[in-house]
Specification:
Elements (H helix, E strand, L loop, with lengths): L46 H8 L2 H6 L5 E3 L2 E4 L11 E4 L4 E4 L5 E2 L1 H9 L3 H12 L5 H30 L4 H9 L4 H6 L3 E3 L5 H9 L4 H6 L3 E3 L8 E3 L4 E7 L5 E8 L14 E3 L15 H11 L1 E5 L2 H9 L5 E3 L7 H7 L5 E4 L15 H13 L9 E3 L8 H7 L1 H9 L2 E2 H11 L6 H16 L4 H15 L3 H9 L5 H6 L12 H5 L7 H5 L4 H12 L4 H7 L8 H13 L13 H6 L3 H12 L10 H37 L2 H31 L11
Parallel strand pairs: 12-13, 12-14, 14-15
Antiparallel strand pairs: 1-2, 2-3, 3-4, 4-5, 6-9, 7-8, 9-10, 10-11, 15-16
Amino acid sequence: MSGDRPDGGRRANEPIGSAVFIKRSREPGGTGLAGAESNGGALAGGVAAEVKSKLSVVDVVGESVQLKKAGTTYKGLCPFHGEKTPSFVVTPARESWKCFGCGLGGDIFSFVMQRDSVPFPEALRQLASKAGVEIDERTKREDARRARLRDVLETGIAFYHQVLVGSKVGQAALEYLRGRGFTDETIEKAQLGWAPEGWETLSRRLVEKRDIRPEELVEVGLAAPGRSGRGVGVYDKFRGRVLFPIRDQNGHAVGLGGRILGSEGQDGRDTGPKYLNTPATPLFDKSRTLYLIDKAKGPIRKSGQAVIVEGYTDALMAHQAGFDNVVASLGTALTPGQVALLTRYAKRIALAYDVDAAGEKAGALGARALEALIGQLAVSDSGVELDEVRVVRLPDGKDPDEVVRETPDRWREEVRTAQPIVDYLIDSTARGHDLKTATGKAHFVDALMPTIRAVPNPIMRDAYLQQIRQASGVEERVLLEVLHRRDGLIGAARSGGGAGNVVGRITAESVIGSADALPVTEILRAISPHEAELLRLVLLVPAAQLRVVESVGPDLLPSQVARELFRALVLARAVDDAGVHPPFDSAAFIAGLDEETAALARALYAKGGPDARDLPEHRVTYEIERLVIDLEENQLRDRAEFNEANIAEAERDGDRAAIERLASERRSINEQRLSLDRRREQTRLLSRRTPVTTATS
């Protein structure tokens, strides 16, 4: 069979991005607020407040936690840590939940994010759907279209699976899989398939027998456009390949991976790549997908570690052998989207690739790929520390599926003793250079410094420098000189200019006057007045941001959308690799937010009231301290109410030991309240003074 395409060179349809939009009073063709366009796939602003108004926190939490009414609150066992005595409290009046055992808390969005390990936009979508928030016609059409495409893809998967297990055509492929060690049970569970030779085997069958349109086959990546007038007008994308259905974390089919049976080009077969994935489609984005993530997410969460391999057979064999926290990355490159997906479930990652940082083996994961991954992790907010990303050392010439099948105990031990990625890179780079010569030392140090510069934690960076010093014998002062040596101007390149650089400014007039302005009051109902005041102040006065982000934790804010905005602010003002806080550009900042969080930021700019930019510095300092005290006081009040309820319960039960313990805790709470009162009075006094210090922006 020839590998030439019969389509005359015409490309398949380009992928069409999907989006979910909640119906709002937007004019058609709106251009976004204050120069910030809506992100694709985002919910329209203001949804959080409407969802909160329609869903009870007791009902949402009660789906996962058995709650018992206790006065004006509800109590239960925390679902996020093991406990025998209830310390988990839901307070309907404040639309909040709090565990006084592990410290977690928040609103309904925080709960779903924690329970399901999903980011805020996804939790918002889930709860918006549950609340029955009206979805506009465009979204209804899009949802129906995606459901139809999934049905088409599932039909193709079922067809190929039947060819594999129920026809003579698939017999050779079935024997091949069995010969690789796969059981019939695994083949059935994974719905493996066989794409027979022939240009239209699948396409003609599904078009003529299942009423599926040719363009739908193209859209899900099962077919590609052919020459007009030829057969059904399309040709099969997969031919002569064993097929592995790819599903998202929810178990929905999104694509296929195909492996050539035997060697490429053997017996005139397809001369394409050994592995062929579905192209980008409305359902499939390779950079955000991991093979077997739907099966592995539970075990990954339970074990606290994800193991990543390169190939489908590697991951599937691991699952068959009971190592079910393994996923495949669909290629050698691990992408930011895949890392973000993994870190929903675990913060430890083990790379079981064919890794060769020295570049001596063709096709192996090399130093540049490792450096890119390290840099990617360093700048992400995934919570993954670099020393928790490790490299599994496999026996030379062995693939993961061979090790798992032949010596499972060795696989288990190699994963357990995997080497931290930076340590691995240092050792591998050292083996690739002659460290007895000055030139070898220079090349060794130069090869590693881009990676070390990307490490944001100064303690870890220093530890890695010490390893480089020990390996190379280069003095520490010299290494530090190389570390801080950069080409060109450091600050100007990053900030786009010097002190005179004009940053974007968003005004209330620009927000309210935009073509598709959102209702500010409705959006702000999603957060508390104290949160709104504090966030508005730090948005309007960038000089106050560093002081706030260094002293206030996001958990002090009770509303999740407020936490999202605060967390984004912390990341935006974090020091760069030169140790400099980048300037604050409000327009660029908002453009990088998800739509709901961006809508909150724009609403805060447009909120009525005094403009904090007109306040003197000492007054800004006073307002920040006052608001922080108010938020701390709210948290202390919650703890006091929890304590009083427990005391009443202990008195009813006659539990003297518990009464004494809780009484001591009550005294501690009262002391903290007195301390807050003293801080508040001191703050009032300080607000009357003329300060002599100047804040740094």
